[in-house]
Amino acid sequence: MGHQHHHAHGSHDNIRTAFWLNAVFTIIEIGGGYWSGSIAILSDALHDLGDTIALGLAWYFERLSRKQGNSRYSYGYGRYSVFGAIVSACILLSGSIAIIIHAVERLQHPVLPHTASMIPLAVLGVLVNGWAAYRLSHGQSLNEKVVTWHLIEDVAGWALVLLGALLMHWQAWAWVDPVMSLLLSVVICYNAVRKLLEAIKVVMQAVPREINYEAVVHLLKTPDEVLNLHDLHIWSLDGQYHILTVHLVVIPGLSRERLCTLKQELRHRLDHLGIAHATFEIEQEGEECGMGCETGLANPRG
To answer: Quick one: which of 285, 215, 277, 274 has its CA closest to 248?
Structure first.
């Protein structure tokens, strides 16, 4: 538990640092965008504003997710982290759509921005967002992963802005500015949708992508004492803490000591497959389940 608390505290501090960096830089970016007349920078300012809101929500939800379970939330508050990831992805997606609309309008009437002010701002953007992304790069929660992708996209976007600013400075190609905005927005939309779908799968209790369902079934049926199994369910609490429940049908006459040993062995082996918490319902052969159970396996993807 000490390690988990240390990790949660580190996650909270990392998101808080990234929030303040992003918030301060967004203000600088908005001023720089108006000063330079660059739609690419203003578009990225809108994006960073969305990221700042997302980071603020992530900061709050990450802190809330550390609360222990109680009579109201028996699993704890871990899934609030997933909710924060969904909100973050939605903000990023809606902001990107607004950028695309504005960039298309500017592409029809391109205006050459003040590239001399764009270049140092772009360099600063790469450095600030790069450092913030590095701070969050070791995070394990889905919330941290979504926020990290936001920041990595920002680094790539600022690198593109820097390249575009240099091209416009040398060649006076005004169309480069809105084209950069479109390219950035398409990439951002793609990743936002991907991360949103990943978070929704957690909420829908889908089998985690990194868990091999068939391998879990094989492992559970390996012991000679296990005759069959049914009602196998695997899901994730928050994108990283995976849970399993299953009914095991065992041979008659097993001692209590052997049943305890068997469950310990299975939990240990399941841990290597990525299952953090396993609950077993033990039944004797021919025993009626009493829970309306089906005799077959649970649908692995249903």
So the answer is: 285
Q: What is the CATH number of the domain that holds 134?
A: 1.20.1510.10
Q: Is residue 52 included in any domain, yes or no?
A: yes
Range of the domain at 249: 213-284
User: Do 58 and 191 belong together in one domain?
Assistant: yes
Average pLDDT on 24-32 reads 81
Residues 172, 81 within the same domain: yes
Q: What is the pLDDT of residue 13?
A: 67
- Give the CATH number, domain containing residue 233: 3.30.70.1350
- The reply to whether 291 falls in a domain is no
Domain count of the fold of the chain: 2
Q: Output the pLDDT for position 226.
A: 92
Structure tokens at 218: 């094989």
* pLDDT above 60 for 145: yes
Q: Is the dihedral of CA 98, 101, 107, 110 positive or negative?
A: negative
Task: Classify residue 297: in a domain, yes or no.
Answer: no
Q: How many Cα atoms sit within 13 Å of 235 on the Cβ side?
A: 18
The encoded tokens of residue 254 equal: 């097993």
Residue 274: helix, strand or coil by DSSP? coil
Q: Which residue has the tokens 């978070």?
A: 199
Rg from Cα positions in the chain = 25
Give the global pTM. 0.68
What confidence score (pLDDT) does residue 180 get? 82
Structural contact between residues 250 and 284, judged by C-beta atoms closer than 8 angstroms: yes
CA distance 59 to 228: 45
Identify the pLDDT of residue 231: 92
Cα angle: 154, vertex 158, 163; to 5 degrees: 150
The pLDDT value given to residue 220: 94
